[in-house]
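Weekly modeling sync, notes
Attendees: S.R. (lead), two postdocs, one rotation student

Agenda item 3: backlog of single-chain predictions. S.R. asked that every request posted to the team notebook include the full sequence so nobody has to chase files. The rotation student volunteered to paste the first one in as an example of the format we agreed on. Action items at the bottom.

Example entry:
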Amino acid sequence: MENKIKISGTWHGELTYGEEYGPDFQEKKMNFRLVIEENDGEITGECIDTEGTGVINEKASINGFVEDNMISFVKQYPACYIMDQKGEIREIPEKEPPEFNYSGYYDPENDIFEGDWHVIYEVRQLTFGFAEYALSGTWMMKREN
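Predicted structure, as returned to the notebook:
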């Protein structure tokens, strides 16, 4: 996979919480720092939340790809965490860590990636199938100078 964007390095980003978070948290933001290595279009790395609403004090792993001007990656923490009604983070040891799915596009004029993210945080069995409960929002990241 040929990639023209030089993505390896450190990026600073921001995510915004979507409407599923309710009026107390919708549109609130959290900043993060990503260190990415790219090899033939495949990306790996680490993400650290730095400040804002919902900061988790653990490194998350990054795995995904970049192709042309599109990026897609999964961010996964080492444990399952939830943000409670007060905005405090709690670990849920009996649950597997969810996968936060990010996708977006590169804006060469501003040297940023921006897009959407989502996470399925619960699946419930219904009489005839399953219901997934998801959270989502938007994100952007800019290369460190």
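Discussion: group reviewed the output briefly. The chain has a mean pLDDT of 91.
Action items: rotation student to repeat for the remaining queue; S.R. to check formatting next week.
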